[in-house]
């Protein structure tokens, strides 16, 4: 519980009366080992804080009269403030842009080349759009250093990162993360009105994030965007993650402000989680629930048995302990499979609002071997037989990169028989439950020590998944 | 019935074999693969297939359309695993077939046949889910290290024997049949011709085409009886004559290089591929990496790949590589193409993609490429075998006249899905415990 008696921490806002130095955001995560630094950075703390702040607000509320207030999509119980409506206007401008840039009808491989044009137009107009829909005093917030950039430089970076890649014609959870950061940046800059906890948060989720997700689905369908870094059926979802977090929260048990966030159970009239495998339940629930609306999109774009093309969601639908349990798992999974994955977070830029500086309260993750998907990762020596260690080839031009580049110096020690990730979750029953860091409820801070989840849990690397060309996991 | 035949039967039914059998299978497969060169020589006729990605039911559809092993001689260009739900069933079946009929099926390595890639893109998770441990994943990865990097198809015919009835409304003949030899034919999964193209028949004094017409046709696709009339090919007979230059070579069809991804700036000859020490995890860069990761693109020369591994290469690169190596065609996979196959650079390279409705959502069709056997000159193997240097010197005159093989693409759609029952829900990932 946070010091002010609430059971959730709130992302601190900048003090308008004090000076601040903005920094044009730039890339800091260059190789997979940098992810460890990210996980103890202030940026990570802020992102998790904001995510959990929004998540908690979506849990139904216990009202004084003993009834329960849920927060379905379209509910009258959530009012949209002026800044929320402005952001809706921004999203609707981007939707109009789709009409302006129709998909190319010529021969194509998969992703539609017109999306590149859509993205170019967006980049051209970004400054104007932000100026049209965000207050000038927010965009023009100056640095204390007169040479420094204004807040706009930071906002624009996260805004532009939110719409997939015009170059690769793909969209994934890294872009979704960028939009979350864009909203969190506006929050930090006092762009949302002061109000009682939950009011603006719910409006952000239902009034901005939900239409954002709809717009993204429209982009994916119109331009056949590929999932960024696809795991096929072995991911949670080809493109998105946060609707599964907020959607499960919508169906979890109701809470009072002071209640700890429930870790199991469901709202009394919540749909059965098993409904995701039933087309009629999905078409009914998708109108009011973010989780089912994400599943509904899968039904829209995929042909085949649900259990086969979405085995992870299918398995989760068998959980008996309710939507609270699913919500807790989704937050943990987001932490491990999105925020802790090099291919996803490598493009995230860091400035002053999301700072690369170490969070003094963060606890260093253990320096365990982690060999997934980053430039440092290297193949493993298999059991017996030929040594599969890389050797310089006879072909003079062919050299194992780590044999000559000096990268070998950074390769952590590892056993000679097994992939470290295999050892971590190898044979036998899963026993990592206790090893999973408890970042699911409280962001890192004095109360909740953060440990890099990937360092110990090594669960499957699911989201996103699908049909894009394989990118090298070590690709920058 | 041997254990192996039993395993094949079981896997064909999409049921997994016990871990101990996988271990044994992988051991046998390694013993077999270790004897193969980096570039396997394969004689036509052969059916060339692209990415499978664990789409087991679609692989069964592929066998239905292309014929069964061992009746049809197959060459799979890698990416058996990852993304699909049935990577294990698919790869283990192919491996069983390889061990059972080593001369009738060739498997080469794709970029997904790698430890690092399979841990990111799903095969590792599938092994854990289906076997409860990483053992089977380890056995499979050890096999991956031994897979060949490419294959050279020799003795392909330049001309196809027409298949039979065509869908007249969609047939697009550039030249009438009488005037040319059938160069390319596209068939749908019912064996109906949907497109055919001809190359002009070049006359010369030694034209023997008339004779060839009466030579017995050869069936390149036994086992496809359900797909209509038997397919014929291998009656080219025009042999060297149609070069029109009096070349003395006894076959004018150049060899076909098959590789998963494409070319490498470090590889200017097929022989250079043979020098690679392949028995290792796929490196992040270098020749071996490029062969498995590169893509052709409408550029000149070489370009950076957006994949972060391998390169992009243009038509000039392909033309020069084929020319220097006496190749008529590079067949590769690695990229989704909506039509199942895509020829580029005047037919110098083709992408073959064999995973229909990829990832359940792409709406693409799949294709396989059949190359017929050249029966002219008693089926003597082509002179162009991709060996570096052979096309220099005395053969220099021929280089511009290497004729591409006749290509028959069989296009097919995703298998019907209504027959698959719903399994019990599995225990969820640790996050949800």
Automatic annotation (TrEMBL), chain A:
InterPro entries: Phstyr_phstse_ac, PTPA_C_lid, PTPA_sf. Residues 367-476 are annotated as: Disordered. Gene3D superfamilies: 1.20.120.1150. GO terms for biological process: mitotic spindle organization. Its EC number is 5.2.1.8. Keywords: Cytoplasm, Isomerase, Nucleus, Rotamase. It holds the Pfam family PTPA. Its main location: cytoplasm. It catalyses: [protein]-peptidylproline (omega=180) = [protein]-peptidylproline (omega=0). GO terms for molecular function: peptidyl-prolyl cis-trans isomerase activity; protein tyrosine phosphatase activator activity. CDD domains: PTPA (cd04087). It comes from the Eukaryota. It is found in: Cytoplasm; Nucleus. One of its GO terms (cellular component) is cytoplasm. Belongs to the PTPA-type PPIase family. PPIases accelerate the folding of proteins. It catalyzes the cis-trans isomerization of proline imidic peptide bonds in oligopeptides. Acts as a regulatory subunit for PP2A-like phosphatases modulating their activity or substrate specificity, probably by inducing a conformational change in the catalytic subunit, a direct target of the PPIase. Can reactivate inactive phosphatase PP2A-phosphatase methylesterase complexes (PP2Ai) in presence of ATP and Mg(2+) by dissociating the inactive form from the complex. This is Serine/threonine-protein phosphatase 2A activator.
TrEMBL record, chain B:
Keywords: Hydrolase, Manganese, Metal-binding. One of its GO terms (molecular function) is metal ion binding. Pfam families: Metallophos. The active site is at 112 (proton donor/acceptor). CDD domains: MPP_PP2A_PP4_PP6. Residues 108-113 form the Serine/threonine specific protein phosphatases domain. Residues 189-251 are annotated as: Disordered. Residues 195-213, 238-251 have a biased composition (Low complexity). It catalyses: O-phospho-L-threonyl-[protein] + H2O = L-threonyl-[protein] + phosphate. Its EC number is 3.1.3.16. Belongs to the PPP phosphatase family. This is Serine/threonine-protein phosphatase. It comes from Penicillium angulare.
């Amino acid at each position: 519980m946070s010091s002010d008696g609430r059971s959730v921490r709130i992302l601190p806002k900048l003090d308008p009366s004090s000076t601040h130095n903005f920094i044009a955001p730039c890339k800091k995560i260059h190789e997979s080992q940098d992810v460890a630094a990210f996980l103890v950075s202030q940026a990570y703390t802020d992102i998790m804080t904001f995510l959990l702040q929004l998540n908690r607000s979506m849990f139904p509320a216990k009202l004084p009269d003993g009834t329960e207030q849920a927060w379905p999509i379209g509910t009258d119980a959530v009012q949209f403030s002026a800044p929320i409506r402005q952001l809706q206007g921004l999203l609707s401008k981007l939707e109009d842009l789709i009409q302006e840039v129709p998909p190319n009808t010529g021969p194509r491989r998969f992703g539609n080349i017109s999306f590149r044009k859509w993205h170019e137009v967006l980049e051209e107009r970004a400054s104007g759009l932000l100026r049209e829909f965000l207050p000038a005093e927010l965009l023009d917030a100056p640095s204390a250093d007169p040479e420094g950039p204004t807040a706009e430089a930071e906002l624009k970076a996260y805004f532009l990162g939110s719409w997939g890649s015009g170059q690769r014609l793909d969209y994934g959870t890294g872009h979704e993360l960028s939009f979350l950061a864009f909203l969190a940046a506006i929050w930090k800059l006092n762009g949302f009105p002061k109000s009682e906890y939950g009011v603006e948060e719910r409006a952000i989720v239902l009034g901005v994030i939900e239409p954002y997700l709809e717009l993204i689905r429209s982009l994916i369908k119109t331009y056949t965007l590929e999932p960024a870094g696809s795991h096929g059926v072995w991911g949670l979802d080809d493109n998105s993650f946060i609707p599964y977090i907020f959607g499960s929260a919508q169906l979890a048990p109701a809470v009072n402000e002071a209640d700890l966030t429930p870790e199991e159970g469901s709202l009394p009239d919540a749909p059965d989680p098993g409904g995701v495998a039933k087309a009629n339940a999905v078409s009914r629930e998708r109108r009011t629930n973010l989780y089912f609306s994400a599943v509904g999109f899968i039904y829209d774009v995929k042909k085949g048995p649900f259990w086969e093309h979405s085995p992870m969601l299918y398995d989760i639908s068998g959980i008996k302990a309710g939507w609270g349990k699913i919500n807790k798992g989704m937050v943990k999974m987001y932490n491990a499979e999105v925020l802790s994955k090099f291919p996803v977070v490598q493009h995230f830029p860091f400035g002053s609002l999301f700072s690369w500086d170490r969070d003094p309260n963060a606890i260093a993750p253990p320096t365990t071997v982690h060999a997934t998907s980053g430039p440092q990762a290297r193949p493993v020596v298999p059991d017996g037989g030929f040594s599969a260690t890389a050797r310089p080839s006879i072909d003079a031009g062919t050299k194992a990169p780590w044999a000559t580049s000096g990268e070998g110096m950074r390769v952590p020690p590892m056993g000679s028989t097994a992939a470290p990730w295999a050892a971590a979750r190898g044979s036998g029953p899963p026993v990592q439950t206790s090893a999973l860091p408890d970042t699911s409820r409280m962001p890192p801070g004095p109360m909740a020590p953060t440990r890099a989840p990937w360092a110990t849990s090594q669960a499957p690397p699911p989201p996103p998944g699908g049909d894009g060309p394989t990118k090298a996991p070590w690709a920058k | 019935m041997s254990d192996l035949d039993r395993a094949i039967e079981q896997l064909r039914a999409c049921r997994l074999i016990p871990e101990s059998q996988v271990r044994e299978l992988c051991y046998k497969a390694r013993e077999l693969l270790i004897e193969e060169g980096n570039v396997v020589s394969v004689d036509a006729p052969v059916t060339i297939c692209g990415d499978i990605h664990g789409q087991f039911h679609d692989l069964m559809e592929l066998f239905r359309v292309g014929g069964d092993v061992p009746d049809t001689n197959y060459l799979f260009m890698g990416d058996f695993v990852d993304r699909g739900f049935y990577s294990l069933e698919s790869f283990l079946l192919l491996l069983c077939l390889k061990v059972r009929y080593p001369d009738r099926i060739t498997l080469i390595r794709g970029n997904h046949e790698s430890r690092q890639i399979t841990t990111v893109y799903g095969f590792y998770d599938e092994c854990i889910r289906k076997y409860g441990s990483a053992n089977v994943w380890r056995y499979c990865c050890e096999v991956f290290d031994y897979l060949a990097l490419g294959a050279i198809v020799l003795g392909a015919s330049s001309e196809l024997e027409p298949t039979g009835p065509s869908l007249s409304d969609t047939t697009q003949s550039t030249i009438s049949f009488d005037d040319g030899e059938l160069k390319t034919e596209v068939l749908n999964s019912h064996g109906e011709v949907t497109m055919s193209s001809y190359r002009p028949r070049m006359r010369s004094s030694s034209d023997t085409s008339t004779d060839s017409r009466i030579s017995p046709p050869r069936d390149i696709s036994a086992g496809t009886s359900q797909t209509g009339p038997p397919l014929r090919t291998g009656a080219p007979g025009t042999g060297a004559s149609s070069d029109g230059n009096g070349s003395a070579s006894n076959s004018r069809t150049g060899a076909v290089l098959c590789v998963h991804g494409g070319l490498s700036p470090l590889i200017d000859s097929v022989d250079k591929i043979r020098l690679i020490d392949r028995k290792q995890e796929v490196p992040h860069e270098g020749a071996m990496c490029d062969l498995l990761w590169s893509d052709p693109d409408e550029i000149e020369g070489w370009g950076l790949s957006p994949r972060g591994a391998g390169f992009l290469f243009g038509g000039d690169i392909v033309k020069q590589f084929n020319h220097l190596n006496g190749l008529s065609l590079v067949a590769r996979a690695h990229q989704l193409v909506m039509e199942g196959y895509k020829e580029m650079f005047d037919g110098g390279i083709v992408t073959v993609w064999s995973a229909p409705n990829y990832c359940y959502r792409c709406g693409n069709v799949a294709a396989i490429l059949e190359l017929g056997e050249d029966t002219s000159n008693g089926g003597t193997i082509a002179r162009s075998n991709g060996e570096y240097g052979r096309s220099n010197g005395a053969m220099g005159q021929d280089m511009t006249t290497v004729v591409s093989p006749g290509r028959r693409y069989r296009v097919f759609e995703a298998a019907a899905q209504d027959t698959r029952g719903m399994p019990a829900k599995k225990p969820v990932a640790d996050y949800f415990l």
